Amino acid sequence: MYKELALALGLGTVVALVFLKKRKSVLKAHDGWWGVGACHQGPEDDSIRPFKVETTSEEIEDLHRRLDQTRSFPSLEDSQFNYGFNSKYLEKVVSYWRNDFNWRKQVDKLNKYPHFKTKIEGIDIHYVHVKPKSLAEGTRAVPLMMVHGWPGSFYEFYGIIPLLTEPSSPDDITFEIICPSIPGYGFSEAPHKKGFDGVCAAHIFNKLMKRLGFNQYYVQGGDWGSLITTNMAQLEPNAVKGLHINFAPPGKAGLLMMLSILFGRRFPKLFGFTEHDVKRLFPTMEKLVVDAIRETGYMHIQSTKPDTAGRGLNDSPVGLAAYILEKFSTWTDPEFKNLEDGGLERKFSLDDLLTNVMIYWTSKSIISSMRFYKENFSKGLNQPHAKLPVYVPSGVASFPNELMHSPKSWVTQKYHKLKTYTPMARGGHFAAMEEPQLLAEDVQILLQFKLLYNDRSLL
Amino acid sequence: MVKESHLWIHKLIYIYSPKTIPIGDGWWGAGEKPSTEDKTIHRFVVKTSVEETEDLHRRIDQTRFTDPLEDSRFNYGFNSNYLRRVLSYWRHQFDWEKQVKVINQYPHFKTKIEGIDVHFIHVRPVQKAGQTVLPLMMVHGWPGSFYEFYKIIPLLTKTDSDAVFEVICPSIPGYGYSEAPHKKGFNTLEAARIFHKLMERLGFTEFYVQGGDWGAFITNNMAQMKPECVRGLHLNMVIARTDSLGQLLSLVIGRYLPFLVGFTKEDVRRLYPYMEKNIYDILRESGYLHIQATKPDTAGCGLNDSPVGLAAYILEKFSSWTDLGNRDLEDGGLERKFSLDDLLTNVMIYWTTCSIIPSMRFYKENLKKDFKTRVDRVTSVYVPTGLAAFPDELLHCPSAWAGSRFADVCSFTYMPRGGHFAAFEEPQLMAQDIIQFVEKVESKSHK
């Protein structure tokens, strides 16, 4: 009798474990409805409409009028960018914006790639879809969705798109690129209901790829894009063949992470820490706590009062520019805080920076973009997707000036099939815009790694 | 022998005399400090112009509205639908010229101290026979101004008590009509010293001080710097939480055995549930503090250009900090306790003086890495103190803890109603409490 009982228990445990494992591996998402009012009965309009970015003289005149009535306030003596955006340099930016920046020319540049819109779950989703001009004999273009973050946009990818759709080397893979706008950002409609978080965005983007006819595809992302693409992989591990991210913030603080923080300085090799890891993580108080507090004020106010925080920025283009460009300065290199001009033009052109700001300005999307923080953080850090690992082959590009640094041993806690982890030579948070060549190379490396190690299912 | 006894006496005096914090000195004007300073006190009149009003109207007219999320009320910040109503009132009914006259009903002055113009109003009392006139400085906070005291001033300059007050309400440098410091480092200690110099310049050697929000910290510092000048300190924000082990332990025990740690029923009601009231609510309400303490120039930039943005940012606080329950109301409960005229007058003070950015810098200057170990945070206050604990204040401090910071608590009142902007919201209650506190102090000192 006891034998039977033991066997039953044993079998039961095995079945339960298998069952649980199966259930744990896949993130579940429900269809949402983000449009105005109640969900319509009947089929949704799933047509794909071409979209063109447009501007009018009224739009430009209104912008100029507002720029002309800027009320600036002088920064403290000798404060550089340590109190936020410096007033002297802001005057230069405003002057360029008013007198030299050509929005019509930039709109033409935006339209050089084809744009589309399609309704999913009640809201219009905007995206750019770039097919390679020519393909080598017998090859197919690999579909790759690249997702932006805050305060960026699809425009961040304009430098890297040609490197991926027309790679210079014949050994490189040719991609077909889809860059959507997160709902609430840029030309994508903002959700009208509460609760639209990263998982909801991921679900919508998976649907978008399906609607475009892709059953299998790759994803790449940084900032929110990194979270959303990770969620996409968790939701549809059979559709997402590979995941590449350039931002991998430390997930849940597990035992390994705690131990490595306590002992990693003394015994770096024990945790696989490189010299760079040690430099970025220690002294822990300074690097992980004080630095984080210094740079997360925006995150705190956006996660709690987004409608208030964005209100003034939707009316004042200068306020919007200062708020957004401060991030392009500090998040590219934290040392830029000590420069009078914030080092902005060392890595970016004012034209590119202001084009990104104009996308937020003309689409009035600053408030809805900030709400994404509240929707993601207000439920706490214990969401199902945060507890689930990622089983899709992944690659991480670790840029030296990224906001938060995760050594390889931390990344593998969440990304169980990490194929590549590349410490990059230079670059910060806005990697695609700042170092498109380096990022493109790393994406190629991940895919070629897969080629090398037999996973040819897509290629 | 004589020398030794001198030493002993010195030692005794040192042990029993209250510790003070250093007074220091500063220069906040632009460029280099000149050899002499102009110490005259100039009369000041708040003015407006047609251009100012037209510019405001033009900016309000070009507001670009966006829809709020369905059913979000005030939980995502200032609700856009209610904001439309406020803007409509501001644009079509609010009369700034009339409000400027209201502001000018009390005499205003400016005087240069440490290189910057310091603004204040000075209201003399209506003295009845047998009443003593006591000078009282009342200091505002953020996002308030001297205007918050306009309802309470008449209740203090005309009383039925033995004491009647001569009220001085300054503007903190960087706020309203006070010039903003041009140099880094201007914190509450610097403001306290400047206000001491102001009282000295006005000829007062002993006076009372009252404050809430930043005003509480500044008046606290004033009492710590020169206790011999501060006859009494009255606060409507009780800043006695030290997060010491003792306090944390009593929080844990106090939930179940409140009497053991000196908690009253009211303390328990205001402190618990702990996580909700002390952690979550604070996290939910301190985003502004975080961004202002790190990037004030960025945070204030758009608000200095957009009156709508400024109004939403400031009035959101007048909603939440008066009653956290207001977050669940479609209109944020603003007009339940305040008139739109008063609320917008306060906003106009920030708008017309372009002072939102320097007002935010005050957070960065004060909340540095050393904010827990700074000299004033580890020194007690030895002047007679009166504490008014309002029920809807953001963070509650039980009377049992007051002693950890204040060595001489003369009165601790659990106020029946009211929130953070106490003087503005419940002037009657506050005036009563100040008067009863002062009466206690005066009778003690006469004994």
UniProtKB/TrEMBL annotation, chain A:
Database matches in InterPro entries: AB_hydrolase_fold, Epox_hydrolase-like, Epoxide_hydro_N, Epoxide_hydrolase
Entry function: Biotransformation enzyme that catalyzes the hydrolysis of arene and aliphatic epoxides to less reactive and more water soluble dihydrodiols by the trans addition of water.
Organism: Sinocyclocheilus anshuiensis
Catalytic activity: 1-(4-methoxyphenyl)-N-methyl-N-[(3-methyloxetan-3-yl)methyl]methanamine + H2O = 2-{[(4-methoxybenzyl)(methyl)amino]methyl}-2-methylpropane-1,3-diol; cis-stilbene oxide + H2O = (1R,2R)-hydrobenzoin
Epoxide hydrolase N-terminal domain mapped to chain residues: 48-157
GO CC field: endoplasmic reticulum membrane
Gene name as annotated: ephx1
Domain of life: Eukaryota
Native organism taxonomy: Eukaryota, Metazoa, Chordata, Craniata, Vertebrata
Main subcellular location: endoplasmic reticulum
EC number per UniProt: 3.3.2.9
Localisation: Endoplasmic reticulum membrane; Microsome membrane
Molecular function via GO: cis-stilbene-oxide hydrolase activity
Protein name listed in UniProt: Epoxide hydrolase
Family classification: Belongs to the peptidase S33 family.
Keyword Magnesium: no
Record: active site: D223, Y373, H429
Keywords, sorted A to Z: Aromatic hydrocarbons catabolism, Endoplasmic reticulum, Hydrolase, Membrane
GO biological process, one term: epoxide metabolic process
Membrane topology field: Single-pass membrane protein
Gene3D superfamilies referenced in this protein's UniProt entry, alphabetically: alpha/beta hydrolase
From TrEMBL, chain B:
Domain Epoxide hydrolase N-terminal: from-to ranges: 41-149
GO terms classed as biological process: arachidonate metabolic process; epoxide metabolic process; response to toxic substance
Residues forming the catalytic site: D213, Y363, H420
Keywords, ordered alphabetically: Aromatic hydrocarbons catabolism, Detoxification, Endoplasmic reticulum, Hydrolase, Lipid metabolism, Membrane, Methylation, Microsome, Transmembrane, Transmembrane helix
EC number of this enzyme: 3.3.2.9
Keyword Methyltransferase: no
One GO cellular component term noted in the UniProt record for this chain: endoplasmic reticulum membrane
Protein localization: Endoplasmic reticulum membrane; Microsome membrane
The UniProt record lists the keyword Translocase: no
Residues of the signal peptide: none
Topological type in the membrane: Single-pass type III membrane protein
Chief location of this protein within or outside the cell: endoplasmic reticulum
Gene Ontology MF terms: cis-stilbene-oxide hydrolase activity
Record field: catalytic activity: cis-stilbene oxide + H2O = (1R,2R)-hydrobenzoin; 1-(4-methoxyphenyl)-N-methyl-N-[(3-methyloxetan-3-yl)methyl]methanamine + H2O = 2-{[(4-methoxybenzyl)(methyl)amino]methyl}-2-methylpropane-1,3-diol; 2-(5Z,8Z,11Z,14Z-eicosatetraenoyl)-glycerol + H2O = glycerol + (5Z,8Z,11Z,14Z)-eicosatetraenoate + H(+); 11,12-epoxy-(5Z,8Z,14Z)-eicosatrienoate + H2O = 11,12-dihydroxy-(5Z,8Z,14Z)-eicosatrienoate
Similarity field: Belongs to the peptidase S33 family.
The protein's role, per its UniProt record: Biotransformation enzyme that catalyzes the hydrolysis of arene and aliphatic epoxides to less reactive and more water soluble dihydrodiols by the trans addition of water.
Name of the protein in its database record: Epoxide hydrolase
Organism: Sinocyclocheilus anshuiensis
Gene: LOC107675570
